[in-house]
Design brief:
37% helix; single chain; alpha/beta; metal-binding; 252 residues; D-Maltodextrin-Binding Protein, domain 2; transferase activity; pyridoxal phosphate; transferase
């Protein structure tokens, strides 16, 4: 599989009940952590990285895994867990607060976890080549839709609610839609540096064995009309010029 456009970027991480004496990631030690797939490694990998970024030490058994599927708010509301991951600012945080929970969250990006609360379009390398023109049209439609949402939010909400039969008189529904609308991205591209950092973190927490070239699983080639032309010509970037061969012309 290969990604070819990002269309949503929200904030998220570990939601915690403030009434459980949790104020920083180190306070998660000894607590119950809800995450889908528990007691598998995914949720504890996020917590481990955050705890260590906060100056703590993490060892196996320092957390009690809880599996309440994707029902994070329910797990905290019914005292099945003290914290939950992965949650999104535009969804679970709003949901939990609407139900009276005293919650906050530790953001991935603030505690050394790659900021992977993003949604992308994916396909196969074969279909990327075969359906290039159709995929480019999909990208254009996505960009136009995002532009419309940004400039006509209330109209966009009405269209969405009619199409999905969502009751927007419900305040939580309305708040969630509005918060999510702010997460659609104008820039659909992503950097190979981001994906390299993500895969190095996955290797660090033993989720993968060997990193690969990031361009093999995400490409910007459908987003920029001169992408292929540039890749087929000698690079003019400063970093590609050997220091010994740099002249004044390279620096201006």
């Amino acid at each position: 599989m290969i990604g070819f456009a990002r269309y949503l970027h929200t904030n998220g991480g570990i939601m915690y009940n403030k009434d459980k004496d949790i104020t920083r990631p180190k306070d998660l030690i000894g607590k119950r952590l809800q995450y889908p797939g528990a007691p598998g490694p995914d949720g504890t990998a996020i917590a481990k990285t955050m705890i260590e970024a906060d100056g703590g030490t993490f060892k196996k058994g320092y957390l009690t895994p809880v599996n309440n599927s994707f029902y994070h708010t329910d797990a905290l509301l019914n005292d099945k867990a003290d914290a939950a991951t992965l949650v999104f600012e535009n969804f679970e945080i709003l949901e939990a607060k609407s139900q009276g929970l005293n919650v906050d969250y530790f953001s991935l990006k603030n505690y050394n976890v790659p900021d992977f609360c993003q949604l992308i379009f994916i396909t196969t390398p074969e279909k990327l080549a075969t359906y290039e023109s159709k995929l480019k049209r999909l990208i254009k439609v996505t960009q136009k839709a995002t532009h419309y949402i940004n400039h006509h939010l209330e109209d966009a909400i009405d269209i969405y609610s009619m199409f999905t039969q969502t009751d927007v008189t419900n305040q939580l529904n309305k708040d969630t839609i509005k918060a999510t609308a702010q997460c659609f991205t104008n820039d659909l591209s992503m950097s190979s540096d981001y994906y390299n950092d993500l895969q190095l973190w996955l290797k660090e927490v033993n989720e993968i064995k060997v990193p690969i070239t990031p361009s093999l699983y995400f490409t910007n080639q459908l987003l920029f009309s001169r992408y292929m032309k540039l890749s087929n010509t000698p690079s003019l970037y400063l970093n590609d010029v050997h220091p010994k061969n740099r002249t004044h012309d390279h620096l201006t």
